[in-house]
Amino acid sequence: MLALKIVGCVLVIISSAGMGFFFSNEIKSRLEDLREFKKLIVLLRGDIRYANTPLPEAISSMSRRHHGNFAGFFHRISTKLYDLSGVTFYEIWKEAVEKELNNTSLSKRDKSNLIQFGENLGYLDKDMQMNTMDLFITQTENEIEDLSKTVKEKTYLYNSLGIMAGIFVTIIML
Fold first, then answer.
1. Domain range summary for the chain, segments of one domain joined by +
2. Cα separation of 124 and 151, whole Å?
3. Of the chain's two ends, which shows fewer C-beta atoms within 10 Å, N or C?
4. What is the pLDDT of residues 15-72, one digit of tens each?
């Protein structure tokens, strides 16, 4: 009976510590995803600004060059834009955000910011698209900066809380 209690206690501590490590890893992954997406928007802005590439061609080029977390996202937008089905850019962008970004660590707030960015991106002239991208890049940089300031403390907090919660539940079980 004692061995069964010990095994149960060890399993509770390991599982709660695992949850703490999972949440701390998620916040680190979110920071990396935001940095990667910001980099991609900067590249997209460069294609449009300096190469005078139209938005659909720039997104298509991005989908061919990029092989990271957002490859499926840009590929979906690219294929939908070339289908010429009469769907607006915003609807294509919104659908891609909702369906392709589920495997990333972006929060709901990040995804809603992306949807709002797509709403303002698709129908404007080149100068307004540049301004929209500049604004989005600035907002993303601010989000990255805020998250970078707190990521170390939050990961330590999540790890510690996970372990301590396991120990607490173990004490209660005994």
1. 26-173
2. 36
3. N
4. 999 999 999 999 999 999 999 999 999 998 888 888 888 888 888 888 888 888 888 8
